[in-house]
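User: I'm writing a tutorial on reading structure tokens. Could you give me a worked example: one chain, its sequence, then its tokens, then a sentence or two explaining what the tokens reveal?
Assistant: Sure. Here is the example chain.
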Amino acid sequence: MSEFRVLSKQIIASNIKRMDIIAPAIVQKARPGQFVVVMPTEKAQRLALPIVEISAQKNAITLIFSEETLSEKALGDLAIGENVHVVLGPLGDPVLEDSEGIVVCIGYGLGIAQALPLCRYFQKKGNKVFGILGAATRKTLILESPMRVACHSAFVTTDDGSAGKKGSVADMLRQLAAGHQIAQVYVAASTSLMQEVASFCRESKLKINVVVKPLALSGIGFCGTDEVKVGKKYVLMSSDGPIFNGEFFDFNIYRSKAENLGV
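And here are its predicted structure tokens:
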């Protein structure tokens, strides 16, 4: 029997699934912010997906993904009890820096799945945590309840105003920054949104960390897809990410690679 098996799955929003996969070796080593590379079947393309939750009791990791590509659909089609061909990980080095004071964790769309474990991490460390959740509509908003549990306060924004406040996560950050002394900001969103948040943080002298969608399809850095530039250095997502200093992160190189991969 495969080491990796689907323990449970559910639809949590429009075209978005949550899946718990038994993966004992990964559970023993995984830390908040890391990710895995998954091959649902022998012929499927690799998927780089963040680890959302770790359950030592169930020996399982939780993944949340949209069913847009053929490989994502193949993963979503696996039945409970069915084997996953390969799960490689944990990958990356999230480098979560301890700090006193308020930490703001921002997630838009599937980025909320990356923000949630960070909120839990800093809450456990004793930080006051503010969460900002963004989505296009109420139907695509995910993980609102667990984010509220993991944060001192959580704020919801939607593009159309169907849930929370109408507007962007960047607008909500500006409002929070006007009334609170923020120590650090983490943002997981589209490249353009991360760039907007990073720009505001630089102007406001706030420490900014970007949580990028992993592009590490080989998982070992050989394919070149996971190389990004931070400052003057090129680094690998599979060993150094997916969390990077947003002040020096090269968004143009990352955007180009993401577009070439169609993610």
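What the tokens reveal: The two ends are 32 Å apart (CA to CA). The chain is about 30% helix and 35% strand.
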